[in-house]
Amino acid sequence: MKPVEVAVIGTGWCGGIRAQTCAGHALVRGLHIAETRPERLAEVANATHPRTATADYRELLKIQEIEAVYISATPESTHYPMARDSLLAGKHVFLEKPIAIELHEADELIAIANRSGLKFTIGYSQRFNPKHAFVKKSITEGKIGRPVSALVSRHITRGLGKKITGRSKLSPAAMEATHDLDFVLWCLEPAKPVRVYSQVNYGAMKEATGGDIPDNQWIMVTMDNGISFVVGGGWSLPPGYPNFATTWIEMIGTEGALLVDDSHRDVVLNTMKDGMRLPMSSMPGEFVDHAYAGPMERETIHFLEAVACDRPVLVKPEQARQVMELYIAADLSAERNEPVTLPLPESRPALAAGAAR
Ligand SMILES: NC(=O)c1ccc[n+]([C@@H]2O[C@H](COP(=O)([O-])OP(=O)(O)OC[C@H]3O[C@@H](n4cnc5c(N)ncnc54)[C@H](O)[C@@H]3O)[C@@H](O)[C@H]2O)c1
Fold this sequence. Notes:
Layout: E1 4-9, H1 13-23, E2 28-34, H2 38-48, E3 52-54, H3 57-61, E4 66-71, H4 79-88, E5 92-96, H5 103-116, E6 120-123, H6 130-140, E7 147-157, H7 158-165, H8 172-175, H9 177-188, E8 193-201, H10 204-209, E9 216-223, E10 228-237, E11 245-253, E12 257-262, E13 269-271, E14 275-277, E15 286-288, E16 291-293, H11 296-308, H12 317-336, E17 340-341, H13 349-356
Parallel strand pairs: 1-2, 1-4, 2-3, 4-5, 5-6, 7-10
Antiparallel strand pairs: 7-11, 8-9, 8-17, 9-10, 11-12, 13-14, 15-16
């Protein structure tokens, strides 16, 4: 184990949490940050005292001492070029989801990381949520017998929905339900998805923006062992707290069931000024003085430890690529109004080669 120098690219909401986590950690010998908004760069630099604070992330990639890079920039189209540049510069990479926009970009990133012996992982933070980890552990230990079906329903506020849809055209499946697709696929390993049917529902977001933006998306997935599961994700809730998120999980097995309430209604702050609020209810979580409520701090340290102690990462990029293929298929299904079979043509080398001839 040896302390390392790390960089965070894009210190907005999530990158700010990652920078703050790294700044206070004993395994970090030096922190470096890149952020294009000058006022946010100054704010995070003031809070974290980095060795370098720059608007140009390429400056950081030239610094030999930096071994690991967290990429938390938006829009999501920045993920692939930033991850590619970082991996080609010889850095271990933690990349926020989505891994890329196109499947071939994800394949290229995975190939570079594997070829170069670099750690490469994707921010599926909910795997570090103790409730989600408990479901995975219970299934691995056989507590509920053989899994038979699963359901995950997740909703966030329309404020967040506007923020996300304002910067990219990615669907609720790609941007939100993606966490739950990753979670259920992880729980059901080694089964693989073979078919998906999805529908989107329009309402408040379309009315508010005038754009082609659904309020939520429901996805039904069939696995190669015959199990099917349902995941739904939406971003049209009224505000209950900045970035409020609520989740309900059912995992049904042959010998038992797991019912998980992660709806974040367990702490209520009621004041004359603001009325009822649900603190500590966002997906990544937040610092509470010396404590942290949520999964993102632990996830950030996990990657740091993976690099400093040469341990494996929990979220393999190949798994993120599988999730990506699944939500792309879900979007196709919603568009065509019919089930879509997996793997997609671009993932079938023999077929793709045949098509090219
Ligand atoms: N794991 C989770 O729970 C979770 C939650 C929210 C968002 N996310 C993901 O994390 C990513 C970041 O989301 P966010 O809400 O923090 O976004 P954000 O918009 O708050 O922050 C992104 C930051 O990147 C900066 N940026 C843009 N281009 C840059 C560049 N070239 N160089 C340096 N900085 C640049 C922006 O100025 C902004 O401050 C998204 O891709 C999203 O999918 C994950």
